[in-house]
Amino acid sequence: YASDLSDKIDSLKSSAGLFKVQERFNGKHGPSYRLKGLDPQLNGNARKRGIIIHAGGYVSLKSIFLNWKEKFRLGRSHGCFALSNEGFGKLTGHLVRPAYLYAYSKDLQ
After folding, report:
1. 30-37 and 52-55 as β-strands: parallel, antiparallel, unpaired?
2. What is the pLDDT of residue 56?
3. 19 pairs with which residues across the strands?
């Protein structure tokens, strides 16, 4: 789980709150979805920051265990919501518009 969140440009961190899933496109990670942050105080810079949903080869148990020196960090998505290739395929197969993503943070309570 992400423990240090930010919406600042160049922070390379994930943001919390509600996002609207927007257009699909092919990016450097393959098929991806752009996200629009719907809370100006939490994630209003999501489009400017390039925060997207994409598949990542590093999203696996193997990668988590290989990162034991970094407290078993999953990877470095630079704030994006990265899924396994299988997970992204399932998402794509079941995504119905309009679609939203909610990134929970215990700090929002």
Report:
1. antiparallel
2. 86
3. 37, 101
- Contact predicate 36/7, CB 8 Å: no
Task: Provide the 3-class DSSP secondary structure of residue 18.
Answer: strand
Burial grade of 18 (CB within 10 A; 0-12, 13-18, 19 or more): middle
Tokens of residue 97, six digits: 């518009």
**pTM for the whole thing?**
0.84
- Report, as ranges of residue numbers, the positions in the chain whose pLDDT lies below 50: none
The predicted-structure confidence for 85-103, as pLDDT tens digits, reads as follows 999 999 999 999 999 999 9
Q: Are 46 and 37 in contact (CB under 8 A)?
A: yes
Q: Which position has the token pair 């423990």?
A: 3
CA gyration radius, the chain: 14
Instruction: Give 89's Cβ-side CA count (13 Å radius).
Output: 4
